[in-house]
Amino acid sequence: MRLEDFDNDEDRVIQDRLKQKTWNDVKSNDSWAIFKIMSEFVNGYDAMSRIGPCVTIFGSARIKPEDHYYLLAEKIAFKISKAGYGVITGGGPGIMEAGNKGAHLGGGTSVGLNIELPFEQHFNPYIDRDKNLNFDYFFVRKVMFVKYSQGFVVMPGGFGTMDELFEAITLIQTKKIARFPIILVGTTFWSGLIDWIKAVLVEREHTISPEDLNLFKLVDTEDEVVDVLDKFYKKYDLSPNF
Predict the structure, then answer these.
(1) Is this entry keyworded rRNA-binding (predicted)?
(2) Residue 38 has pLDDT above 60, yes or no
């Protein structure tokens, strides 16, 4: 079928990606993609290397300003900034906006790592003007989160939030990166997933070790978040995670 025979954009995109390409087309496209990827890494490293110790806050872009979790994320970011950390978010609306807003109100560094998406994502107004970065590639953006964060605060979210959470846990579990605090906020939201991990992954299928459950903490308040961070770092001379 031809592209014009499809009646929706998603089918057209799939058909375009599946159509036969010559070897020269493949080599040419891949070569130029490498340069674009390199430029995103270089720009990201250059900007992020100057931010100082920061904590990343993840969560849904769909959560509204009046929502309990938005208000809680704002309080957490404010308290984190008062504790001396900057705040990094994905730069968009929802929980991300709340995180940047709390950091802004607390006088702390407020960083936004935006990703270009067909829906949901647009940068929020609480990011420091010189710390608003844009990415085309998810994997480059994810490197920036892990490389320049001294902790992850994971609020309720969707697939993207889960993706960031489990990538960090995997990297720490496999010792590809040094351990840092991973804090899940919201017992009501996370308890079902944690119960499943314990019952299925640990006890029934033995696909992870019981000790892996210690790689994250579950809390409900802003004070608990800062307490976890402080307890983890009080025995270290805190420095950027690279």
Answers:
(1) no
(2) yes
